[in-house]
Each structure stands twice: as C-alpha cells, then as structure tokens.
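Lab notebook, bench 4. The sequencing result for the construct came back, and we need a structural model before the next group meeting so we can plan mutations. Quick request posted to the team channel:

Model the 3D structure of this chain.
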Amino acid sequence: MKRAKDSKDRLDERTQKRSVPKSIEVSIIAILSATSISIAFVRSWAPNIEVTSLITFISGFVFGSRIGSLVGGFTEAVSSMFNPLGPAPPPIFAAQIGCMMLIGAVGGVIARFSDKSELGGLNKSLMMGAAGLYLTIIYDLVTNFGFALSFGSSYETALIVGSYFMAIHVFTNTLFFGTVGPVLSRYMLKTVRTEGGI
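Done. Here's the predicted structure in token form:
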C-alpha cells in the first residue's frame, strides 16, 4: 500500500509540475511549431530525414500530451500544405497529422512514467530510441496506407515502393531520438524550470 501511495504521489507531483497556464501554453505551441516548421522547410530536399517527430515527441515529453499533440498536428498541417514539392493528397494529409499528434501524445504518456532525473543516462537513450523506432514504423505504415488510398494501389505495393524510404526514416529517427532526444529534453526541462515555467 505504501509503495502504491508513493508512486501515486510521484505521479501527481510530475503532473503538477507539467501544468502550463493557457497564455504560456499558446506561446510554447507557437514557438515549437515555428521552429519545427522552419527546419522542415529547410530539409525539404530530404523528406525522409526529419526532426519534426523528435521535436513533437519532446514537446509532449516536457510539456504534456496536449501540447505535444497540438505542436505535432499544427506543424504537420502547415508543412504538408505548403510543402515546396506540393501539398499531400487528403488521405496522406490526414494520416500525417493523425500520426504526428499521436507521437506528441505518446511523449507525454511516457514522461508520466519516467524518472527525469536520469535523462542523460543510457536507459533514457535506449527508451527514447525505442520510442522513435516504434513510432516511426507506425507513422510510415499508416502514411503508406494513405498513399495506397490516394493513388489506387494495393497496400502491399505501397509498402514495397516505400520500403527504401521507410528504412531511412526509421533508422534516422531512431538515431535522433536516442542521441539528441535525452539532451534536448534535459535542456528544455532545465530552461523552463529556471524560468519558473513548470
């Protein structure tokens, strides 16, 4: 009973620390989304190497699932609509937004059950790397389904055609999540706590 109570107290403490006033929440979403969108346009020449997923996940990890999902959804919507290569067809567009919102939400869920005192440790690198691996696989599987719907191909054909790009996407995101993720989340947490945010 005591152990369960202690776990609940720690969870409540993390939740309280992560609550953000509405005015600050809007600013956080705007800043993180603008940063992610800017980077997305700069790297548009390499569409399968991206940091939007990482920024979205860390937004959820640091500020909670609500902010993470909003950052992901807004970033993906703007990036997809104004992509220099052209806007995505509706099924792909919907899949991209839904999956990116999921990535932000999962970041918040994982943070609720994580010990942020060891954000620079090997365990956190492995945890974030694994999150990047699985979330990117889900993202690519769903968006490939959207591709199949958009162009009237079979799902199997879409997976085969996109397998090379999917491999690059999964590998780079796993690497980014596992190496940059712990450092970025630790820096953001330190910054907001220093400024009295959460």
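The radius of gyration is 17 Å.
Will bring this to the meeting.
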